[in-house]
Amino acid sequence: MASPEEQLQSMVKNMPEKTGKSLEQWFKLIKAQGLETHGEIMKLLKGEHGVSHGFANTIAIMYRQQAAGGPSRGSELEAAYFSGAKAAMQPLYAQVVKAAQALGKDVELAPKQTYMSLRRKKQFGIVQVSSKDRVDLGLILKGVPASGRLEAWGGMCTHRVRLSSAKEFDKQVKDWLKQAYSQA
Q1: How many CB atoms lie within 10 A of CB 104?
Q2: CA angle 83, 71, 85 (to 5 degrees)
Q3: How, if at all, do strands 116-119 and 108-111 pair?
Q4: pLDDT-derived band at 60, boundaries 50, 70, 90
Q5: 126 CB neighbour count, 10 Å cutoff
Q6: Among 144, 130, 5, which Cα is nearest to 71's?
Q7: Which of 2-16, 131-145, 164-178 is the least confident region?
Q8: In Å, what is the CA distance from 100 to each residue of 55, 61, 105, 112, 148?
Q9: How sure is the predictor about 6, in pLDDT bands with cuts at 50, 70 and 90?
Q10: Which of 44, 78, 143, 149 is the most exposed place for a label (fewest CB within 10 A)?
């Protein structure tokens, strides 16, 4: 049976399909309406937007929790990256994220469902806990051929470096990270 945290993650993941908007979009709508109480939020979501009671209640609770300074949506997403056996990868993940942040004050971390987006003016990479023994560093490197550890990778990043230990996050990888940052 799924834990309460896993159930919540599943609910948030399915929210766009089931309600027509993501949690972040609902938060923006509620904030724009200036609503504060649970009842006001429930009335808006259920009455004006036809959201089912379960989703409306979850959205209202999470919105009010965040408004009160509780855990942010991003911290919940990030914590989910280390579920189960993936917990062992947290120190390596933290090292990569810290190195990205050290590149400049304009680095923005944007947590997604399964990875952390690294952004500047635009995205320049991602850090993804892919398995119990690997963190993938995805990079957007224009005009750089894939070679050796710097693999071609489809999707939003042009390249990937597979990391299984802090030792592998060496000067060469940090230079690729810096190059992606400078191109963004």
Answers
A1: 12
A2: 5
A3: antiparallel
A4: confident
A5: 24
A6: 5
A7: 2-16
A8: 35, 33, 10, 16, 22
A9: low
A10: 143
Tell me which of 179 and 13 has the higher pLDDT. Answer: 179
Q: How many residues does the chain have?
A: 184
Closest CA to 130 of 114, 149, 143: 114
**Burial class of residue 124 in the structure, from the number of CB atoms within 10 Å of its CB (0-12 exposed, 13-18 middle, 19+ buried):** buried
The predicted model gives 55-65 an average pLDDT of: 83
Bridge partners (DSSP) listed for residue 113: none
Query: Backbone phi, then psi, for 70, in 5-degree steps?
Result: -75, -170
Q: Where do we find the tokens 């997403």? A: 77
Give the model's pLDDT for residue 106.
Answer: 93
pTM: 0.61
| Other Cβ atoms within 10 Å of 62 Cβ, number | 21
Task: Give the Cα separation of 149 and 169 in Å (integer).
Answer: 11
- Put residue 23 in one of left, alpha, beta given phi > 0 → left and psi -120 to 50 → alpha: alpha
Kindly state the tokens that stand for 37.
């109480």
Retrieve residue 106's tokens: 């304009």
